[in-house]
Inverse folding.
């Protein structure tokens, strides 16, 4: 049936959807998806299928705190879809994580896996908690109970968690162990991003930042910018931001600013990223108090006179309120959803080349896929092999997205969505709808 915008609008919305900027991540996802659906003339029924999460799990997670008091946390796991394979995606622990955010992040995993050609569907999990206020014991009990509650959801062939904001290899190890205790055998392919000793992959820890570096270089190449001429600002100094900064510096870029929750740090002559990583490691992962830089605000960082901006913190950082003040020529989205749809439009008008999240930060899930393959084969690769294959997949994905954006005369983001939605829709069409 030919696609008609008004048909799906009636099916999904009650009235036509204007472009908004209200910072609801799921809505932000849908707005980009809509544009891709329109370009692809997606069947209205498929539209509805692909925009709707397949399963949403909400679970109460009771934990005996160190004080002896029981506290109940809310946990989520959203499977957006598993058309291309088992669903894949991280788990985030944060005080403000909510279901809409997890739904958006799950959908972004679906499109991300499709863009880099990894045979997974998309999922995401979250627990509303403040890990910085919790002891290691409390975090372990929280993690194990969350995993036990979702024991029928997770599985190496079903749904495979990984680290995300405020979760790490240790938390994956506890999930692996909890799952394995229930299944009565060690099942290391049930999570990725775990310690190497438990079947983790070399290069997984650095993979997202490395992928950001690879696509940033590819984007520079397209506009004739030399890495050695590039001044870079990185928002966020966690696993993604710090490693992207370090690797871009190794490529000759000058990292003039980075930031974390304690604020921004600026040095016109270039920051010593390695020293800052060491400082943060010794300082509860925070740059608070770092002296060898000028202190700026997070907002100032985003609008600095730089060539490349890497938002690697969280959603909704580049919005209609600051997009017109962005000075970078390239934005490489290390975070998921850092730019709102209205900001997209404003950046496009300014001629900023935005490498979108579902491409730019896909290095993490790509090496998660390598990890899962290695676990299932029981045969492990060298770091060199992992990095070579990662670089190749990221380069190919960049080139494919770039070609799609040229073909349809759209931004890289819409090009990426068109590729991803088309791929998943084709797979759905081949599989058909089970009745
Ligand atoms: N949390 C990461 C992401 O947002 C990685 C997910 C994974 O490796 O499964 O892409």
């Amino acid at each position: 049936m030919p696609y008609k915008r008004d048909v799906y609008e009636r099916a999904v919305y009650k009235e036509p959807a204007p472009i908004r900027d209200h910072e609801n991540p799921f809505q932000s996802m849908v707005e980009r998806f809509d544009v891709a659906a329109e370009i692809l003339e997606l069947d209205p029924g498929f539209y509805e299928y692909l925009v709707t999460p397949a399963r949403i799990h909400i679970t109460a997670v009771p934990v005996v705190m160190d004080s002896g008091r029981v506290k109940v946390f809310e946990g989520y796991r959203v499977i957006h879809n598993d058309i291309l394979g088992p669903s894949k995606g991280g788990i985030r622990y944060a005080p403000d994580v909510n279901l809409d955010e997890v739904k958006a992040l799950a959908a972004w995993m679906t499109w991300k896996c499709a863009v880099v050609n990894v045979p997974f569907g998309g999922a995401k999990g979250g627990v509303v908690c403040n890990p910085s206020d919790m002891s290691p014991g409390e975090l372990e009990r929280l993690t194990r109970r969350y995993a036990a509650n979702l024991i029928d959801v997770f599985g190496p062939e079903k749904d495979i968690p990984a680290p995300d904001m405020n979760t790490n290899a240790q938390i994956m190890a506890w999930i692996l162990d909890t799952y394995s205790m229930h299944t009565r055998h060690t099942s290391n392919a049930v999570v990725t991003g775990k310690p190497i000793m438990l079947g983790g992959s070399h290069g997984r820890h650095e993979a997202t930042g490395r992928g950001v570096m690879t696509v940033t270089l590819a984007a520079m190449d397209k506009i004739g910018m030399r890495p050695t001429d590039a001044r870079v600002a990185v928002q966020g100094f966690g696993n993604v931001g710090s490693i992207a900064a370090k690797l871009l510096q190794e490529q000759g870029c000058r990292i003039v600013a980075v930031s974390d929750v304690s604020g921004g740090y600026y040095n016109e002559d270039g920051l010593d990223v390695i020293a800052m990583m060491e400082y943060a490691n010794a300082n509860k992962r925070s740059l608070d108090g770092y002296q060898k830089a000028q202190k700026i605000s997070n907002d100032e960082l985003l609008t600095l006179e730089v060539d490349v901006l890497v938002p690697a913190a969280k959603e909704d950082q580049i919005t209609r309120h600051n997009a017109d003040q962005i000075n970078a020529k390239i934005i490489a989205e290390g975070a998921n959803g850092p730019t709102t749809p209205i900001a997209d439009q404003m950046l496009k008008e300014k001629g900023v080349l935005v490498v979108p999240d579902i491409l730019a930060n896909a290095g993490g899930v790509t090496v998660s896929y390598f990890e899962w393959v290695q676990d299932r084969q029981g045969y492990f690769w060298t770091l060199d092999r992992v990095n070579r294959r990662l670089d190749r997949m990221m380069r190919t994905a960049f080139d494919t997205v770039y070609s799609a954006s040229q073909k349809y005369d759209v931004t890289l983001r819409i090009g990426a969505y068109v590729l991803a939605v088309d791929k998943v829709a084709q797979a759905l069409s081949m599989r058909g709808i089970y009745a």
About this structure: Residues 1-20 have pLDDT under 50 and may be disordered. DSSP finds 15 helices and twelve strands in the chain. The first strand starts at residue 55 and ends at 64.
